[in-house]
Write a structure and sequence with these properties.
single chain, alpha+beta, 4 helices
């Protein structure tokens, strides 16, 4: 069962605040390229996202480039931090977000050069 595998991955990484006996996982998304689970520990309240890469998707994506991009985006404060990774999976910081308004997305699409990206993107995603 995929939920049990997500919990096992988190506990094997020995992330603080997670236990096999008190953690639970809920599938929050998935498609051809990834399956996403939110793993939360009911005792500590800690939560993370576990991403399992789809079977065979390495033929379409360079995972090393994706890893570098993911870390770079996190480093400048534009995305979650990576908390662990392994063959076929990644653990990401859980960011409690709420959906943006369509107007914010339209503004992001209009951005022409990178210097405006962070200013415009901050309007699109609101951290709770």
């Amino acid at each position: 069962m995929a939920q049990a595998r997500a919990i096992q991955v988190v506990c094997q990484c020995k992330l603080a605040g997670f236990s096999l006996t008190t953690s639970h996982a809920n599938k929050i998304g998935g498609a051809f390229t990834n399956d996403l689970f939110r793993v939360e520990d009911s005792s500590s309240g800690s939560a993370v996202i576990v991403r399992f890469f789809g079977h065979g998707t390495d033929q379409f994506f360079d995972r090393e480039e994706e890893h570098e991009l993911f870390c770079s985006v996190a480093e400048v404060g534009m995305g979650p931090h990576m908390l662990g990774s392994g063959e076929g999976w990644r653990i990401e910081q859980y960011l409690p977000l709420h959906p943006s308004k369509n107007q914010g997305i339209l503004q992001l699409r209009r951005v022409k050069n990178g210097t405006h990206f962070s200013r415009e993107c901050s309007k699109c995603v609101n951290v709770a």
